[in-house]
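Need residues for this backbone.
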């Protein structure tokens, strides 16, 4: 097992998961059909082109941006602590900021067309409503994400102080 892990770089379960993922992707392509993934008449409407564009946009644009944001958050928290690492007794706040920020960003991505009122005429014609409340609702939802996270952090901090400062790290 150790030899396999040294040669492959991970345990056999990882290899099994990767093979399963490739098999699932192959099955999805076979069900959808290659002809439906590529539109030779209007190439930019092809699913394959949009998927490739999404991969490039994520890996070359978005990933560096949110990696920079995460590094800035970590550096900012270190600066607030006086450039020292937290004692093992303290509850780290980093994930209590990361999780609601991720949730807020994903909901922004999901509801961005409504927030920027893209297709407002079609939405109005279909529903009789405007897209005006989307921004307010997204802001309220984001505030709720951060409020719940702050409450969870405060609870965990209070429990760690009650237990004498012992914090279990996953």
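Answer:
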């Amino acid at each position: 097992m150790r030899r396999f892990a040294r040669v492959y770089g991970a345990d056999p379960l990882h290899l099994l998961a990767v093979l399963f993922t490739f098999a699932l992707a192959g099955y999805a392509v076979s069900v959808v059909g290659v002809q439906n993934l590529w539109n030779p008449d209007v190439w930019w409407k092809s699913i394959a082109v949009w998927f490739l564009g999404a991969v490039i946009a994520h890996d070359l644009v978005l990933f560096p941006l949110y990696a920079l944001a995460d590094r800035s958050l970590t550096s900012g928290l270190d600066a607030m602590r006086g450039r020292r690492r937290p004692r093992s007794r303290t509850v780290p706040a980093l994930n209590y900021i990361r999780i609601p920020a991720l949730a807020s960003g994903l909901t922004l991505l999901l509801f961005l067309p409504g927030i920027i009122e893209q297709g407002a005429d079609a939405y109005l014609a279909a529903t009789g409503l405007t897209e005006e409340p989307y921004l307010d609702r997204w802001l309220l939802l984001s505030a709720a994400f951060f409020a719940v996270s702050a409450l969870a952090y405060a609870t965990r901090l209070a429990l760690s102080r009650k237990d004498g400062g012992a914090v279990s790290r996953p």
